[in-house]
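Retro notes
What went well: the complex prediction finally ran end to end.
Inputs used:
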Amino acid sequence: MPDLTAHPMPGSAYAGAPELERLRAAPVWSEELVAAAGLRAEHATFVTVGGGLAGFTVVDTLRICGLDATQMRVVSPQRRPYENLSRLVRTGQIRDDDPLRSDSGSRADNIWGFPGYAVQEAIRRRTIRPLWKVLTEPVAAEFYNPSPGQVFRGIDREAGRIGWDSMLAPGQAGLIRPSAEGGFFCLVHPADHSSPYVLRTPYLHLGTGYPALGYAPGLIEYRLRHQEYFNVVNAYEPHEHVYQVLRRRAGTVLVRGAGITASRVLQRLIDDRDRSGRAVRILHLFRDLAEQPPGRRGSSPVVEHGWRYQAFSFPRSATSGQHREQLAGMSSTERAAWITAMGATTTAKRRHWQRQLRKARSEGFYQALSGEITVMEPSGDRQVRLLIADSAERDALCLDVDFLIDCTGMSPQLRDNPLLADLIDSGGAAVNALGGLDVGPHFEVRGSGGEPGRLYASGAIARGGYLAPVDSFAGLVDAALLICDDLAAQGVCARLGPRSSVAAWIKQLVRRVP
Amino acid sequence: MTPTLRGRLQTRLFLAATVGVLWTAIISPFLPEPPGVTTGMSYSMAFDSLLLMAVYGLVWEHLYHRLQQRRWDRDWPSVFALLTVLNEALLVWLLDHLFPVMSGPMPGMSGSSLANAGSLGPDSPYLAGFVVHMGTTWGLMWLFSQGPMRVIFIRWRFEGGLIVHSHVPESPVPGDRPDTSRPEGAGFSEARVRDAVPGTAAARLTLPPHTGHARVYGDPTSAPNGDLVEGNMCGHGHFGHPGTRYCMICGGPLPQLNGTRVLGRRPPLGVLILDDGDAYVLDGDVRLAEVDGPGTLTAGRRDAIPAASALADIRLAGWQPFVSSELHPIALALPGGGHLHIAPGASALLMPGTEFTVATRRVRFESPYQPVEPATAAPDPRAGAASEADAATSPAAATPSRPGAPRVRHTLRG
């Protein structure tokens, strides 16, 4: 069977009218070309494509640096910047008041990170517990983690303050091309299905986020071959039915993966089991139970029962501090190696999860397995038969399970996004060693053309660049500041110095329009 | 903020020179000094201590930096920064006596103060003033580093505590440019994909945007009647729901606005979960019945179960399932917390997460096709009975017309 995942078909899904095809064929556009295609053109000083948190942080920072809302456009199919994030967070079994894997000072809605989420929660709930946690983390307490509810409320507030809605150009970007006159064109398909139009801008930012949910090849093949969507699921797609069935009857579920999502899924399964009292058996498949992470020295046991523990996706010093500084001085090959090693699948060591799994192990309804699934097919009585080959080359294990929840993570493949695939194919961007867009120190896309204009990219699509945690809240703000510094150097906006920063911070505190 | 060595040194000097100096100037006259110590002497002792703390702190910072290298994550928790006042103040206290900044008798001292004036121990008359000064100054400097520093120097927290910050190198590091990878074979033919995928070779009609004309792909007769729905194709050629962002088969993105709409065979819409945990995949019209007598609920194809034993029917219109019963009223518990009651003969839209009760049997519907905007754009299930046909997104979908169906009686709570 051919590998259906690696090579999307160009053009088929995005086929359009002949005039759009003519535009697609041209690697550089000009005013005349756009006019000849009969497309309406609008101008904006800054355009961001995606409308998620990467775009939000950049627009927020630009507004704070003095750029007017009327000069910016956000091309986005979503109304709120966190819409897609909130869907993924919910399907990943994090409810609105559960902890996220982030800290108090990492805020997408506050570029200063002060006051942090902990201070805000302490004031709102009139308790010093969050403050105590922040003070003693991670020595005497676990890290303070904000909840999705807190994060989304904050973003709503800031979006209202900076006039996010007024900048929205509801729609989806279809094509991006440099302009012969400098700057960029972005073809927009409006959300109301009216005729496409073109946005012309000297400074374009891409923040389209994870191009796809990374389904394991075995899962795709299983679905294609057997047309079965409900017994084998990916943790990032809605799979509430699994929990609902197991609340009503006994069954066996296999969880694959060892990341934070696997932790959350296990918590949900065990919580439900405790509540319903059904004899649910949980099998947990690790790739290799005994594997040791590379590059770790020093204290604290970080590997236990197959899990690798780490408070955040990357150590905090990669967001700010020594590792960030080191990374900035590395070559791209060194960076790729470092990011791969430090960004490997890990989960947070939370006491609640530790307790639950200890209890589950002692009661015998949780069992950790090691190996790779080699065969996956439906078996009788609506079950799934799995053949698991252990790396120790013992006999393969044959299992019949009711459900398989695949929690192996999302891997951004830029080519999955037709807009980015087209941009790369038309020579407007290159891909780095880790599969992200090749960006410079200020997140400018290298080789994009359009000079003296600039094309920037931040968030998940800029993975493998100078910053390791590109898709964390703090990483997004860091990227936004670097982009705005670059724009300030070109006279687009003011650079945030101590005085303007303090003034802008006070404005945000009293919720005045920047 | 996890500091770098340069960041540590700069931050230390900056905080001592600003917060430290300002606070020392404010508090010095009020420090609990022994009798005989004038305000001027108090100022001098306090500022000398501050200077010693700042200067010798630079040595301490090197030690902390070395310790930080022993932590695998190179983090330096803020509580460490707070608690290091203990060792640092002890050193300053010793240095104060060594140089001496505050040692020996002062004019006007008498009694025990005079006797203990040279003491390093807890009975030193200078200790109270020293502790108050050091404790409050350190505390304020630490507090300032936890918040206001980030506001004044916005890049400070990202650059490991650097105040005079160096820019990220503008010129690329040697050997920095990677080999740009251009995956080969991007030109997969549609036919090859379709042929390789059993079951997706169903008829596909493409509906180019803004034209209203459909193009036919494949053989429309190969799809069962009523199973064609309008949807999108992901980049890999998989057919999917027009409102979802990711493909159900490969997780790839589905074009939401600029894709060509396609008519394709409808995948299963979700699962019905019966009260005993039995799950039934909703891939066509379904009938719920107590076939084997009261007590055992059975779900099966609608045309395979006689209407006489039916409790309820679930019929699919486009991408949406509707529940109805000819004989029984149905109570629906909606995912948002609302409730809806429909009379026999009427039908209601089933949203994912809806539980309905018919003749004491409770059934839940779950589906991967969640509303795109959970909070605002969820279709109103009450609209179901009135405009079932409108709700179908496909012109080719089954659009059951129910003339003369009774109006929905609904009570919406919560």
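What we learned: Chain A has two domains: 18-102+155-212+413-509, 217-310+346-406.
What to try next: split runs per interface for comparison.
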